[in-house]
UniProtKB/TrEMBL annotation:
Similarity section: Belongs to the 5-formyltetrahydrofolate cyclo-ligase family.
Signal peptide: none
Natural source organism: Flagellimonas chongwuensis
Annotated residues for binding of ATP: 3-7, 131-139
Enzyme class: ligase
Catalytic activity from the UniProt record: (6S)-5-formyl-5,6,7,8-tetrahydrofolate + ATP = (6R)-5,10-methenyltetrahydrofolate + ADP + phosphate
Protein name as annotated: 5-formyltetrahydrofolate cyclo-ligase
Pfam family, one: 5-FTHF_cyc-lig
Domain of life where this protein originates: Bacteria
Positions contributing to substrate binding: 50, 55
High-level lineage: Bacteria, Pseudomonadati, Bacteroidota, Flavobacteriia, Flavobacteriales
Keywords annotated in UniProt: ATP-binding, Ligase, Magnesium, Metal-binding, Nucleotide-binding
Length: 187
């Protein structure tokens, strides 16, 4: 299936989920993260959810990371296909971007080569670990700057797409895991 077809399909599927159900699924997803061996690392990059797009709510996962005294890094868009990454602290101030994403105003910048684990936003993924995002290339650009051994973990309300994504290109970065509320996929 083509990426643009999957974007449309999964945006529609997300829109059908009630806020209560999305909250329950996000909590289950955070609990599923305990099944994978990621808890001995230092820097964890996580996206902040776009509320009006009914994305996975990452706050339960952030709370889980904070409860384990992990260093959490959050992104800020700074140009075409470019993110900066800031350490999340008690003093981090946020401003909503033009896309509705809460972004840090400033703070302690963490370079890509320090990040151990990245929780990656997505709309869909297939059984080989290919993902479909919103199509702007921010995360593929960012992930290509991370170390080769940085773990890439997708977060999805839905199971893997059984049909492989047919228009994957050389700049697309595959996932190592994808966490859903009912299953953890390993690639």
């Amino acid at each position: 299936m083509l990426k643009h077809e999957l974007r449309k399909k999964y945006k529609n599927l997300r829109a059908e989920i009630s806020p209560t159900k999305a909250s329950d699924l996000s909590l289950a997803l955070a609990n599923s993260s305990l099944q994978i061996p990621i808890w001995d690392f230092f820097y964890y990059h996580i996206f902040l959810s776009i509320e009006d797009k009914n994305e996975v709510d990452t706050l339960p996962l952030i709370s889980l990371l904070q409860g384990r005294d992990k260093n959490i890094v959050v992104p800020k868009v700074v140009g075409p296909n470019s993110l900066e990454n800031y350490l999340l602290t008690d003093n981090t101030a946020f401003k909503e971007s033009a896309w509705g994403v809460p972004e840090p105003v400033d703070g302690i910048e963490i370079p890509e080569n320090k990040i151990d684990v990245v929780f990656v936003p997505l709309l869909a993924f297939d059984e080989k670990g290919n993902r479909v995002g919103y199509g702007k290339g921010f995360y593929d650009g960012f992930l290509n700057k991370c170390r080769k051994e940085t773990l890439k973990i997708g977060l999805s309300f839905f199971a893997a797409e059984p049909e492989l994504i047919s228009d994957v290109n050389e700049n697309d970065v595959k996932l190592d895991y994808c966490i859903t509320p009912v299953k953890v996929y390993t690639f």
